[in-house]
Amino acid sequence: MKLIYRKTLIDSLPERWFDTYLRRDDAPYYARAKVKYDALMALPRPLSAEAVDALVARTGWTDLKCDECLRDDCEVVVELGEEPEHDTRTVWLCLDCTTNALALMTATG
Ligand SMILES: [Zn+2]
């Protein structure tokens, strides 16, 4: 169980972009991805979601989504379950849904 902050996703975007697209310099998309990576590295700090989203021209890189209510603009979620990888059981819950879950679990009937 750990907390994940949207700010961390935003700040780590250049590193995640590198890991996703620039690990292999013989990939056909390498040159185009490198141009975007260089532009990401040139952005003023602290990075903003708007700036990095506009640059990568693809949504989802900075979205922090709750798996219960499906809000995708959470500032923080709690990660429950296995470390996320392909085919793992991992859930992200926002504060409201975590509060609701606690209330449900502690309710006396
Ligand atoms: Zn939620």
What does this molecule look like?
- This protein has 109 residues and is α+β, with helices and mostly antiparallel strands.
- The chain has two domains: 8-60; 64-109.
- It is built from five helices and three strands.
- It has helices at residues 6-11, 13-21, 30-42, 49-56, 95-106, and strands at 2-5, 76-81, 90-93.
- β2 (76-81) and β3 (90-93) form a beta hairpin.
- The protein is elongated and about 60 Å long.
- The chain starts with a strand and ends with a helix.
- The chain binds zinc ion.
- Zinc ion (ZN) is lined by residues 66, 68-69, 71, 93-94, 96-97.
- Zinc ion binds at residues 66, 68-69, 71, 93-94, 96-97.
Name its key features.
109 residues, alpha+beta, 5 helices, elongated, binds zinc ion
